[in-house]
Amino acid sequence: MLWPSDYHMHTPLCRHASGEPTDYAARALAVGLTEIGFTDHSPMRRDDFDNWRMRFDQLGEYVEKVRQAQKEHPALQIKLSLEVDYLPGHEDWIRELAGLHPWDYFIGSVHYVSDSWAVDNPEMISKWKERDAFEVWSVYFERLTKAAETGLFEIIGHADLPKKFKIYPKQDCTKLFTSFLDAVKKKDVAIELNTAGLRKDCQEIYPSAAFLALAAERKIPITFGSDAHAITEVGMNFAEAVAQARAAGYTHFRRFEKRKISEARIGG
């Protein structure tokens, strides 16, 4: 099978991944991928914002490492990109980042439901006991919807991330999902099928099959990503992701070059 592009992977500069970009590229070729994209966690305006992203003064080093991987693996298409956290009020910073290098795409992700709490951080899992789950999911999706509405991102990452620790609201979240998806549709943004969820407590792709079905009803484009933080995770569980996409009715996935859109058929 001709696998979809793996558009979500990290580097050691984020301080919680291992393996250099050229090693990820070699692994991608070994598992049969033809295109990948590096999307390490972008710097914040303040380097001390948290401890799981590159510093601003490392951005040039990141670009150099990706360019080196491109030179060493000419048979593989390698995209230069970032995973960029969306927080309200950070839009100007994201625009500044966009102008610094010829990026192929930005993945917009929400991790923070406040300036101090990233809902997927295992070191902060105790905070879930202090908040109502539906309130947390509501804040998360409000921010994710705003991220889509900004038009600053080509892809929205791991759309139902709050399920990571298998903490679900008792209430129906369908309205949260559809409000977000309507914003995505209006801005012609893609959402990713992120296989990292299969490696987490939820043991489910981000987004769920039911969530993806809602996206398919709206003809929202998709991308694929392993969210690899280690070489062995490149392209991991893509068979399951492809099966989920096809079950929802998808036949194509979205690709990017210098932030311009194209499409390719799933499976060749």
Describe this structure in words.
It contains seven helices and ten strands. A six-stranded parallel sheet has the order 1-2-3-6-7-8. The protein has a two-stranded antiparallel sheet with strand order 4-5. A two-stranded antiparallel sheet has the order 9-10. The protein starts with 20 loop residues before the first helix and ends with a strand. The model has no long low-confidence stretch (mean pLDDT 97). The protein is globular and about 50 Å long. 31% of the residues lie in helices and 18% in strands. It has 268 residues and is of the alpha/beta class. α1 runs parallel beside α2. The protein has a single domain, classed as Metal-dependent hydrolases (TIM Barrel). The longest helix has 18 residues, at 133-150.
Which value, in Å, is the CA radius of gyration?
A: 17 Å
SS field, number of helical segments: 7
Please state the average pLDDT score. 97
Beta fraction: 15-25%
Number of domains: 1
User: What is the CATH class name?
Assistant: Alpha Beta
